[in-house]
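Still learning. Any example?
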Amino acid sequence: MKRSFLWIFLLSLMAAPWAQAGVVEVGASANFRRSTIDDNNYQESLSYTGSISYYFWEMSALEASYTEGSALLSVKPVDDTKIITKSIFRMVGLDLVITFGAKEAFLNPYIKIGGAHIEKKIVREPDGLNASEIESPSSVVPSAGLGFKMRLTKTLTLKVGVDGWTSSLKDDNPTIDYAGRAGISWMF
């Protein structure tokens, strides 16, 4: 599966010189969230995403992205042991992005479909006990998303969207993870 992902990426790079539009877009976004009940019960997450897109037709692009993040969950039921769960994740994706509307329009909705390589590490740490890692092997999974770009200047846009991906398709009951994103992108 990793080999096919690599071939798709290499073929897309080889096709780039024959592309018609030749526009490159670089994007960046960050997401931080903290939700607190009290000192023992809270959750916190932080992630960063960087992307580069090559528009091979006027409104269609191949987008390569990298996301890295972490999350922390602290739970202490009444009169029980506090458990801290830490997770770290990395995702490298390649998507076909199709944008609707005119190139110079103020608002451009888009959809995307592709795949991603995901690595997750989850560790549970009960107070006073040894930490244990929850097994989560890395895998290549399908992904999809939708959103819109709002043009701020000729080269700068605000990009808002939702991306989703599954757990490994080898799982008996695959799950769907998703993330809302907001960031900026520059066209070159």
